[in-house]
Amino acid sequence: MGWDSEAFVFLNRLLDICEAIEEVEAGGAPTLLDATDLQCTDFPVDAPLPRKMTISTQELEEAREWLLAVSMDQKIDQV
User: Fold this and answer.
1) CA R_g for the chain
2) Fewer Cβ neighbours under 10 Å: the N or C end of the chain?
3) Residue 35 in domain
4) In a domain, 78, yes or no
């Protein structure tokens, strides 16, 4: 669809959320997620975090790999 820039922002947000959930699962305090890159959107930024992960490790790794590959691409606007 040509929405690589949007996918980049949303998948980055997904990884931030997953890291925060993992931190809570490990017994840590929930961290405040930075939402500055979502300010001018209607994307919900103050929704409560789930208590446990609902995405598979494989899907999370695929997202990380895609983000790494795309971050090297000069054609993608990371905003």
Assistant:
1) 13
2) N
3) yes
4) no
Number of domains in the chain: 1
Q: pLDDT digits over 25-35, tens only?
A: 888 877 777 87
**What is the H or E stretch that residue 12 is in?**
helix 4-25
From the DSSP assignment, how many helices (H) and strands (E) are in the chain? Answer: 2, 0
pTM of the predicted structure, to 2 decimals: 0.77
Higher pLDDT, 4 or 65: 65
Considering only CA atoms, which of 65, 67, 3, 53 is closest in space to residue 24?
53
The whole-angstrom separation of Cα 27 and Cα 15 is 19
Unique residue bearing structure tokens 């961290």: 31
Quick one: tokens of 19? Answer: 């890291």
Domain span at residue 39? 4-71
